[in-house]
Every structure is written in C-alpha cells, then in structure tokens.
Write a structure and sequence with these properties.
By secondary structure, the chain is an alpha+beta fold. The protein has nine helices and five strands. Strands 2-1-3-4-5 form a five-stranded mixed sheet, with helices on both faces.
Amino acid sequence: MPLKDLPADAQPREKLLARGAAALSDTELLALLLRTGTARRGVLQMAEDVLRRFDGLSGLLHARADDLKQVHGLGGTAKRAELVAVMELARRALAQQLKQREVFASPGDIRNFLQAHLAHRQHEVFAVVFLDTQHRMIAMEELFSGTLTHTSVYPREVVLRALHHHAASVVLAHNHPSGTVQPSRADEALTQALKSALALVDVRVADHVIVAQGKATSMAERGYL
C-alpha cells in the first residue's frame, strides 16, 4: 500500500512528528529515508526487503554503496548516497560517544564501534584504538591494510603512534573478510609481539578484537592476553 493511502496517523512521517522517532519500526524509519518505492513495490515493502537482505540494521550499517546498488530500486545514485551518508553519520556518532565516556563502561561498546568501522571492508585492515588513563578513547587509526602477517604489521609504527597520542593502553583490532572471527596462529603471534613492544614504553594492550560481518571476538576474553 502506498504511504499516501495509509491513515494519516499511520504514515511514518506524521507518526514520527506526533509520537517521536522511537514509535517507528526499523522498516518505517528506513522508509522515511527511501521516500519512494518502485512501480511494483511500495516504499514500506522496499524498506522491509532491504532490511531482510542485509539481516537488519546492523548489516545495513556495514553495507557498501556497491552492495546497495544490487537492490532493485537503489540503482540510482541519490538514494544510495543518502543511505551511505546516514550510515557514516551513525559510525561517527558512535565514535564521538566513545570519546566522551569510558570505553569499557559496557563491554560491547568497543566491539560495536570496531564492527561499524571495519567489518564491511573487503580486505584486512589493522587498526589501533588509543586509550587514556581513564580508558577513554583518544583516537582510532587504521595503520596497515592488506593481508596481515607478523611481518606486515610493524610494531615500531604502533609504538610511535602510541607515544604520539600519549596513550596509556591500546585496543588492537582487525577484520576477517572471510567471516570467521577465530584467532589464527598469526593473530596470536602478532598480539604477543605488539604486547612486548608496547610494554617497553609502558603501554598496555587491553585487547585485540577480531571482527567480521555481524560478529566479533575478544582475544582478551579468550585468554590470549
């Protein structure tokens, strides 16, 4: 059913203005962004199909512009650009929240942040979150990309960046495009090498998080640190 044919109090825009954004479902919120559907599919049905294709909002947050292009009705640039912009704003808002509070106030906060930034990448990216003495995020930097091995991630560079930020501790992170979040032998060796290098300048490795689409694992929680 087209939005215009819905009762006034059931139309997403009017419902949002009258009752607040929290009153809308994920489908209704996405429909507001999409605005129009296709000739054979109303915007609500289109929004529902998009969420189903990407396994909900979390999956959509990780989708790339090229992924969205495969959805019927999102082949044009305008809607895709708006969705990508909104998703990037969501990632930046999460980063800003983490800078304003203790990262480990909730154990899932840092994992959610890293998933939002790294899980959608098509190649491996190694990043470091630099923390102050109160466990608040100072910055996150993507330092290396490509296939990660002990030799392609340079401990010296990580140490220099930690000193630059005056970090008290760090969270190491990288993604596995394969979809598995099981630490490999190379991940274990790299973690220990960086832990030893950073210990020389009194910087602690708080965790090494491995992320993939929709999941993440903490090497600290698994006892690797």
